[in-house]
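Quick one: structure for this chain?
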Amino acid sequence: MTTFTNHQKLLAIALEEARSGLAQGGIPVGAALFSADGILLGRGHNRRVQDGDPSSHGETDAFRKAGRQKTYKDKILVTTLAPCWYCSGLIRQFNIGTVIIGESVNFSGGIDWLRQNGVNVIDINSTECIDMMANFINTHNELWNEDIGES
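Got it. Here's what it folds into:
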């Protein structure tokens, strides 16, 4: 259960990361992992293009940068876009308790599955996140399809 409820403040960190990734020529998905009381543990963005690493999604980048935690059940993962199946698996594997999503309009990923498995999923429906991703998909459709595993 989330004890720190300023979702917009947490999302602002993920948005900074998404903008950074976009400026680097990458896919604009940013994420951050927080403690239950809102302390930033790690932040990152999708680095698939920059690092040539297909496993370097925004959520995994933030997760790795947060370092080892004793438990994740009380942690809050914030991401600008609904997590894909790969990142949803990471969330379930480590029992991350709460996921705050900037948007799921452009991509809904595994959020229904996460909810069905007891994860507290909060979809903010941020216009900024929706517009950033829609613009990216429209201008970089081939790269987007590569990122989500579409032909």
